[in-house]
Each structure stands twice: as C-alpha cells, then as structure tokens.
Design a protein that fits this description.
Length: 508
C-alpha cells in the first residue's frame, strides 16, 4: 500500500492526473474507508475536467469523515470555479457552521458574491477573513479590489498599500494603487505605481491599458495610444476586451482633434488583425471605410454586454430621450381604436425602455421584444412587460418571424446600420397594412451622403435618404420631428423621430 500511495502522490505532484487517478481508484477499492484516497480521486477528476465524478468523490469523502471540512471546501471551490455560486455558497456555509473562523470558506463566499456584483456582501466576507488573519494578503487584495469597484478609491488605496506591506512585489496591489491614485487625480503617484507593476510583469495587458487611460487623462495621446497598442499586443485571452478599449481610445483621440495620430494607429491595427471583424469595423470607422454597411455583431454584443447591468443609469446620465419621444409619436399618430388588440414588436428592445413607455398607450395584448444581446434580454425579462423575448439579429428576425404586427418601434438601433433597405423591406413584411413603424435615426450633418460611419462606430443618416427608402418599401411618412436624442461627450446628438405607415405591399 505504501509503495502505491507514494507512487500516486508523486504522479499527482507532477500533475500527471490520469496516471495518479488510476492508482488512487485502485486504492479506494482496497481501502474504501480511507478518506485521503477518495479525496484525491475527487482532486484528479476535477483536474481533468470531469466535474460530476469529482463531486461524487468529494461527497463520498465527506461521508467517510463527517468531522472534516476538507471535502466540503473542495466542493465549494469546485462549484465556484464552475460558476455555480449557489452551491459554492451552500457548502462554504456548511464549513462555517463547523468552523466559524475558516478563512477559506469566507473567501469563497466573498468571491461568489463578488462575481454576482454583490460588492457590499463580498466585502463583508473579506473583512471577516481579514479580522481573523490581519496578515492575509488575499483578504487585503480582495478588499482593495472590491472597494475600487464600489468607487471607494481612498479605501481601495489603503487596502492595496496594506497588501504591499504583506507582499511587497504584488503586481495586483500596484495596479489597484495606480488606478486608485488615477481616480483621485494624483497622476504622478498613479504613474509611479503602474510603472512599478510593469517592472514586475512587463507582459500584463491591463497595466498597459491603465497607463493608456492615465496618459489620456493628461491629454498625452502619443503615450496613450502607444501604451494602448502594447495592451493589444500583449492581450492574450483578453484580446477582445483590449481591442474594444483600443478602439474607444482611437475614437476619443480623434474626437480631441488628433485625427492624424488616430488614423496612423488605426491603419496599423487593421493591418495587424486582418481576420478580426471587430477590429476591421472599429478601425474602419476611424479610417472612414465606405465599404462598411452595418456594425460588426461582435462589436455590438460586446459594448452592450459591458453596460447591461447599469445601462439605464448610463443613458440617464446622457439625457437619453428616445423612448419618451417614440412614445409621444405613438400617442400622436397610432390609431389604437382601429385595432381591437395590438400585436406590438419592439426591435432592439434593450432593457425595455421603449416598451415601458409605449405599452400603457396601446394596451397590453401581445408584446414581443428582440435583441441579440443575452444580458440585455435578461434585464428586460425581469420587468415582465413582454409576452415573448427573442435573442436574434434584427434583420434575421424580421425575415423569419411568422407573426404580423400593428405597431413596431425601433429605438436608437438603426444607428448600427448604414444601408437600411433590407431592414425596411423585412419590416414591411411583418407589418399589417395600416400598421405603424416608429423609429429614431441620428442625422447626418457631416456630408451629403445617404449614410456615414462616424469614428464612434455609429452610422448617421440623411433624412431624405430615409424618406425615399420608406416610399420604395411601401411606407408613407406621417410624422417626422427633429430632436436632441442624447449627449455624447460635450456634444448633443441630434436626430429624427419618424413615424411611417405601411400603405402598400411591394414585391421584392
């Protein structure tokens, strides 16, 4: 037994998990009541990705030794790593009932809460772990990170500096310190800490990204784009995130009057990532690529997923009025009494802002919301205002759906399409004769083009183009008002709220 056990332990330490597992399994057959062999079977199954088997063996180990918390901690940690936060919390709490000072269980509870954006709760668990062990680097760095996410930058800085006292070469602590100093306006301190982090980890994209933002705050766009470019080159698994960040940096650089510099980096970016559609779209917007007809789906999905949780508060800060204006147009033009019941389609429904304003005016008979971004649909679902929610591309949904509608709203969505012919043609297929389509467009006051892709990645449209296209697709304009749609930086974005009625069937 000793020889087999030593052989299995050696293989396990060498991370040769399948070979170690074979021996541990044979040992459990000979010694079925030995907790260690059962635990290590669970560890090996976990290491090779066989989660269900790992859970079975951890639970078996727990039954073999009801006093031990090792198997319970292994279960909690396994569930946490598989993003099953409910079960992770369940087993971590069982551990705390047996050992109220178990810092590992407290940290698992904190991490599970943090991943669900329950930052106050996460902090309370980290703080308890810290009170039990004031020298716990993990508790300190997690408290620092959580405070930063709660915008409590002074506290985040205090905890990060304390973490550095425990672990003087902590890259994470230097990053959090640098970012906190940045938010507090202490630019020199921020730069010093971020460069220190870089000296320890020169291939970390998030350090380059933070320095890029720091130099942007100082209006040093040469360095901002230089470090942003390095973040892209070192991105690794964070490639899409860093590409999004770099694209925004290019746009903001161009918006500050540094178009030449932005275009130089955009050209290099587009050339270096020829097979990345997101890069081709965002870089193409900076380079004024006239071949782009609509936004890249990855780009749209990523930016909306980033803001899904606080989407409405973000829009409120931009004085966003499109849902209200669309509801006003519905009130003014939609012939509600003409229909006993209204099938209502909210295209690009987002979190349901248009529907919330429109449904009280038309009655709640049958409402369908369509959005391609799951996180947005999850937010809309919580409001219980739609009978059906569909995760689908707008144009594809219009083409494939079989139901017809009397009212369709499209709020601030067409800005991600240049050529609108297919959208309007497919929309006409889904509307009954006499049905209304109410939508917003951002106006093209830049040039005489039908549509134009701005450096922000959004399209602006000519009103004449829109009205001509509506007629070709079987619609008649019955209302059009120029409105201030939202703010964008220090500028106001103007557009039109247009109401169109389907008056004829047009053969494609």
């Amino acid at each position: 037994m000793d020889t087999l056990e030593k052989q299995a332990d050696r293989l396990y330490e060498e991370q040769k998990y399948p070979e170690a597992l074979d021996i541990y399994l044979s040992l459990t057959k000979k010694y079925p009541k030995t907790e260690k062999y059962t635990m290590f079977c669970g560890n090996c199954f976990d290491a090779i990705g066989q989660t269900d088997a790992a859970i079975r063996y951890y639970k078996k180990a727990s039954r073999l030794n009801p006093v031990s918390v090792l198997s319970l901690l292994a279960l909690a940690n396994l569930y946490y790593n598989n993003e099953d936060y409910e079960n992770a919390q369940k087993f971590a709490k069982v551990v705390l009932k047996r050992d109220e000072k178990n810092t590992s269980a407290l940290l698992i509870l904190g991490n599970s809460a943090y991943c669900q954006h329950l930052y106050e709760r996460a902090f309370s668990y980290y703080e308890k772990a810290y009170q039990i062990n004031p020298k716990s680097y993990i508790a300190l760095i997690n408290m620092a990170n959580t405070c930063y996410d709660m915008t409590k930058y002074v506290k985040a800085l205090d905890y990060a500096l304390s973490a550095l006292e425990v672990y003087p070469s902590s890259v994470d602590a230097y990053i959090i310190s640098g970012n906190s100093y940045m938010e507090l306006g202490r630019i020199e301190k921020a730069e010093k800490n971020l460069l220190k982090a870089l000296s320890y980890k020169s291939d970390n994209p998030w350090i380059y990204d933070a320095l890029s933002r720091l130099y942007q705050k100082s209006e040093d766009y040469e360095n901002a784009l230089s470090f942003g470019w390095k973040a892209v080159l070192f991105a690794g698994d964070a490639q899409q995130d860093q590409n999004i960040n770099f694209g925004y940096m290019l746009y903001e650089c161009a918006a500050e009057g540094k178009e030449k510099l932005a275009k130089e980096y955009a050209a290099k970016w587009v050339e270096g990532f020829k097979k990345d559609p997101l890069v081709q779209y965002m870089g193409g917007a900076i380079l004024e690529n006239k071949k782009l007809k609509k936004a890249d789906p990855q780009y749209i999905e990523k930016i909306f997923d980033l803001f899904a949780g606080d989407f409405e508060s973000t829009l409120f800060g931009l004085d966003y009025m499109v849902p209200v204006y669309i509801a006003q147009a519905v009130r003014a033009h939609f012939k509600k009494d003409f229909y006993k019941r209204t099938n209502y389609l909210d295209l690009g429904c987002g979190t349901g802002l248009c529907a919330e304003n429109v449904i009280p005016l038309i009655g709640w008979h049958y409402a369908v919301g369509v959005k391609k971004k799951k996180k947005m649909l999850d937010e809309a679902k919580r409001k219980n205002i739609y009978h059906r929610l569909e995760k689908a591309d707008l144009a594809e949904f219009l083409k494939n759906d079989t139901l017809t509608y009397q009212l369709m709203t499209i709020g601030d969505v067409l800005t991600y399409f240049g050529d609108l012919r297919q959208v309007f043609e497919n929309a006409a297929q889904r509307l009954d004769l006499g049905g209304h389509m109410v939508f917003s467009i951002s106006e093209n006051n830049i040039n005489a083009n039908d549509y134009y892709l701005t450096p922000s990645g959004r399209f602006v449209h000519s009103v004449d183009y829109i009205l001509t296209l509506l007629t070709k697709c079987g619609f008649s304009k019955i209302g059009s008002e120029r409105k201030a749609l939202r703010n964008e930086g220090d500028s106001v974005v103007y557009g039109h709220i247009i109401t169109a009625e389907k008056v004829m069937i047009v053969e494609k």
